[in-house]
Amino acid sequence: MEGGNSPSLQLQQLPLATAAVSVQPHTDSFSYKENLIGALLAIFGHLVSSIALNLQKYSHIRLAGSKDLRAYFRTKTWWSGFLLLVLGELGVFSSYAFAPLSLIVPLSAVSVVASAIIGIIFIKEKWKPKEFLRRYVLSFVGCGLAVVGTYLLVTFGPNSHEKMTAENITRHLVSWPFLLYMLVEIIVFCLLLYFYKERNANYIVIILLLVALLGSMTVVTVKAVAGMVLVSIQGTLQLDSPIFYIMLVCMIATAIYQATFLAQASQLYDSAQISSIGYILSTTAAISAGATFYLDFMGEDVLHICMFALGCLIAFLGVFLITRNRKKPVPFEPYISMDAMPGMQNMHDKGIAVQPDLKASFSYGALENNDSMPEIYSPATLPIVQEQHGSRGGSAPPYRVLEHSKKE
């Protein structure tokens, strides 16, 4: 009887074993197709967004260089760029529904590469042949490194896939790794915000760290919202779940505050520094959040993780080289500083007051505030002393100049 029952037991256990194997991340070939679809959508979205932004920039430049008095939002070029920008953002948003979060976020390096190339070709930035190697060799090297890093990211990216149902998202939201990660992130965010607001620590790293921490929560919620929309389109409605609207509100709120801190950083620092440092910090924070919330690297072998990290480092280096070679804006000089001219004397030359120093103000000469200067450098005065006319009727001068010594 035992021998007769064993085949039936084996047949009953066979579907369970097959189901257990099917949930492994690397056995389903369609998961690679999902990765490819998500990566292509992200690359397409970033390329279109770069073209759109440069098209809007071209519209502003053309209006500034012409006698056209129209506003920028009344031109067809600006609206074409706006529509392309919406299309690109929709492509990036859709990519989160197919591929893991840790794979999509580093692909934003494509927009930096596209902007560097389009800025030379489309905007027609002027350059001389002698300055070509000195100015643009680092940009092309950075573009090559960013392309190599993108290839490694797509090839060795995480391959974990699960349906973004309300049940799965709620289970991830209350898991202890993510709760611990959120506790650490909130503490770090509050400390950075205290130093930034109360201590006036306006360092670029502090501001962009605030942006990166907010951005990590933004991409987590974006993937949840995009995934639930995709599952609803496929036939299982998820839009009636409260977790969907919680994620939607968090996505909008963190995106608004992230844009606010970015605007403050752009007023203090150059856009090239913001692009490079912001990309590195935001990508690192987003990958950490994706690995903690969605368990992107669960089941990945060491080789894939190391090659993925290498691709990130190469992409970081490429973006740094591209942004490092951008032309820095020249500050406006209202007048030529005389103390900067060779051969001109200033107030420190042998104690003679000849030319005032440049004191980071736009006034010079008689408009300079001399209240804090010592008395020896102050100009001599001519006190007028009235004298009465003598009885002889002589023509005495109505005033005389009194000479003061340095002691007086």
Tell me the structural class.
mainly alpha
Measured on Cα atoms, how large is the radius of gyration?
A: 34 Å
Give me the number of helical elements.
12
Order of helices and strands: HHHHHHHHHHHH
Could you tell me how far the N terminus lies from the C terminus, measured between alpha carbons in angstroms?
A: 129 Å
Beta-strand portion reads under 5%
- Mean pLDDT across every amino acid position: 76
Largest sheet: none
Shape: globular
Helix content: 55-70%
Count of DSSP strands: 0
Runs with pLDDT <50, length 5+? 1-28, 330-338, 346-378, 389-393
Quickly describe the structure:
With 408 residues, the protein is mainly alpha-helical. It is 62% helix and 0% strand.
Highlighted features:
disordered N terminus; mainly alpha; 408 residues
Can you put this structure into words, describing what you see?
The chain is mostly helical. It has a domain at 162-295. 62% of the residues lie in helices and 0% in strands. The chain is built from twelve helices and no strands. Helix 8 runs antiparallel to helix 9 (204-233) and helix 11 runs antiparallel to helix 12 (302-324). The model is unreliable at 1-28, 330-338, 346-378 and 389-393 (pLDDT under 50). GO terms for molecular function: magnesium ion transmembrane transporter activity. InterPro entries: Mg_trans_NIPA. Keywords: Membrane, Transmembrane, Transmembrane helix.
